[in-house]
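ok new one. same drill as before - structure tokens go in, u give me an amino acid for every spot. 268 of them this time. try not to just spam alanines like last time pls lmao
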């Protein structure tokens, strides 16, 4: 588990790769160009005289894959990965938030290429006028640290938020989080691809039509579809247990998915 600013566990990215991400093809294309390329081929940018981005914002509703993307790109380029949880750093380390931030950046600098992922960045970097003293200091610290990153591009800070408009404008200026990628609610084709990711190792009965499930799940984001798949599998297990059927050969049926659908509310 990756939390707060703890040094990451053994597998900070949980082994997540692009294969674990459904849909989002255009978004991933931008991720490759803005994050992957500078980390893996910095010389290309130098040669062209372009400064690689220091900060990229991923914004969109909860559960749409922002964290997955950050972890997948870190894995792809073999970058070290640190997560800073906005709400946690604001509460848990009262009075030491700026110091913790400094440590995270120092640590990243010793382990390049590196990605620093700020989850729910809006909770530390809301507009300064309407936030308290602590917030102001922490935003100030973050700005200083980002300005202090050299332009080599071997550290990229990714900020995730579902309230991009509430971010302090100073953070979105050039040289800071000056690139943005919107991660939206998936359409039917996206839902189909996300479902494919989550059912790829699931024994499915022949009557399961994944396309049909994709059609019937309007408003479901990736996290909802992950829950749906899990719930369908649990329903199958329960059904088999009640019927006294052998559990080793259980298959997940269309009825199991329908049962799960009736029990999960779409987030969007
Ligand atoms: P939050 O703003 O709540 O942190 P997020 O956008 O970072 O949300 P993730 O943590 O990436 O969302 O997604 C949560 C879970 O939902 C993932 O672990 C995964 O199981 C599933 N999920 C979300 N989006 C996708 C996707 N595009 N493809 C496959 N699975 C997805």
């Amino acid at each position: 588990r990756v939390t707060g600013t703890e040094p990451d566990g053994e597998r900070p990215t949980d082994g997540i790769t692009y294969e674990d991400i459904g849909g989002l093809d255009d978004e991933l294309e931008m991720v490759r160009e803005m994050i992957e390329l500078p980390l893996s081929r910095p010389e290309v940018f130098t040669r062209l005289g372009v400064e690689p981005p220091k900060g990229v914002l991923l914004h969109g509703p909860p559960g749409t894959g922002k964290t997955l993307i950050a972890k997948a790109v870190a894995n792809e380029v073999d970058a070290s990965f640190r997560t800073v949880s906005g709400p946690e750093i604001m509460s848990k380390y009262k009075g030491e938030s700026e110091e913790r931030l400094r440590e995270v950046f120092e640590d990243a600098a010793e382990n390049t290429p590196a990605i620093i992922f700020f989850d729910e960045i809006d909770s530390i970097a809301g507009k300064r006028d309407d936030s308290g003293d602590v917030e102001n200091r922490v935003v100030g610290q973050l700005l200083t640290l980002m300005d202090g990153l050299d332009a080599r591009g071997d550290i990229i800070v990714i900020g995730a938020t579902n309230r991009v408009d509430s971010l302090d404008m100073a953070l979105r200026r050039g040289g800071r989080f000056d690139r943005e990628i919107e991660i939206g609610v998936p359409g039917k084709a996206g839902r189909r691809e996300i479902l494919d990711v989550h059912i790829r190792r699931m024994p499915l009965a022949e009557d399961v039509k994944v396309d049909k499930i994709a059609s019937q799940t309007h408003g479901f984001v990736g996290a909802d579809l992950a829950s749906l798949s899990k719930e369908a599998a649990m329903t199958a297990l329960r059904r088999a247990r009640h019927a006294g059927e052998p559990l080793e050969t259980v298959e997940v049926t269309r009825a199991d998915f329908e049962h799960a659908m009736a029990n999960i509310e779409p987030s969007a």
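The pocket of adenosine-5'-triphosphate is lined by residues 21-24, 62-68, 119, 160, 162, 194, 197, 222-223, 226 (CB under 6 Å). and btw The beta strands are 55-59, 80-85, 114-119, 155-161, 177-182.
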